[in-house]
Amino acid sequence: SATSSSLEEIGELHVTKGLGRLVTGMMVDGDGSYVTMDDGRHYLDFTCGIGVTGLGHCHPKVSKAAADQCLSIVHSQCSIAFHKPYLELIQRLLPIMPHKSLDSFFFWNSGSEAVEAALKMARIITGKQNIISMQGAYHGRTFGAMAVTKSKTIYSEGVHPLMPGVFTTPFPYWHHANVGPETPTKKLTEDALYQLDLLLSQQTAPENTAAIIVEPVIGEGGYVPAPVEFLQGLRAICDKHDILLIVDEVQSGFGRTSGRGKKDGFFAIQESGVRPDILVIAKGLANGFPLSGVVSRKELTDKLKPGSMGGTYAGNAVSCAAAVAVVDAMQEENVLENVKARSKQLFDFLSGLRATPAYAPFILDVRGRGLMVAMEFASSTASAHDIARKREVPAKLASKIATRCIERGMLLLTTSVYETIRFIPPLNISEEDMNKGCEIFEQALKDVVT
Ligand code: PMP
Q: Which of 44, 109, 115, 245 could tie 290 with a disulfide, CB 3.0–4.6 Å?
């Protein structure tokens, strides 16, 4: 229609070129695991708006809670007065925190802002300046968050100098050591912790180091779970030197990585038993409404002066009401159980592809936790690892496969500077829709490599 073509033109001409885009057209409707575009295209959504709509699009309970809240109070402003959903949300979150010491909350809008607040808090609380972050980390797009982001140069190209006082340490990932995916985790972990020890004696003294920030499952940097021993090693180093451990679960939290046995819960860090000093949450927390949070211990946050934290929209009432409904729905609908079952289904399927002779030469790795899962393909740009294997593969396998999936009716994203596809389906996806996604993926893989 004339209206939609003129809107298309507006999209072409008047939206900043600084945005990338996965598909053309406008998303006009979302229902559970599916979205519909203005021209009628219907997609199975394995992106969840980058790991946000864990309960699917427009979950009735969450949408209703938000709509109801719109009719009482939308904006009370956190420095003017509490609103009820703010406090109800804390009530809901306290019992599901990954450690019982986490009892002091501050809500923001986005993950980046929450990371920013965590970094500021770490400096204020410790009276120290420097921050250590991981190679491959992603923490956001604001200046502080960008300074601790180490996953792709595009996020900061042309923007330097970034916030000073940031040091980078290797994450135990085989690419960082330029070895193969079969390298024992124990060896990678020991090497990474050794490098961190060196950093603290060669570059940033513990007396100057306020915090170490880590994603328990690296997100934008390639969906790489941190080995439990690495997280425990970080905790030990932080304890030894009075450094705060900031755990960024913006992407890995809220059930996304559940399904690993007894210590299981809403957060990836639980598998390790490690206590975060500061936990950062967002994305799945409010299923699409803008909301993030910084959680710490009262004993630490009591050191902050009133007025040192704040923000016009921070902890918005509609977003908090949505988040209360998210926590309730996750529990009432046994979503963590579903994550466990669907995770097994997806891993079994991807491991099967990896073991299939027609695909095996192209697939380097299948990894992840819960429904935060990656398949990494061999790269045509030669790493020492690939040269050693005399691998010859088509260029840009991951993006070619993702494009074929989209043509076949499923939204799928790549991630990192490696040839990696990431699977982030809704946490409450049905067995049938998971099967459908797997079938589309295999077809796309076949289209590209055979
Ligand atoms: N931390 C992590 C681990 C993330 O994955 C992201 C977003 N991808 C952020 C922080 C930044 O969140 P936001 O985009 O909401 O600012």
A: 109
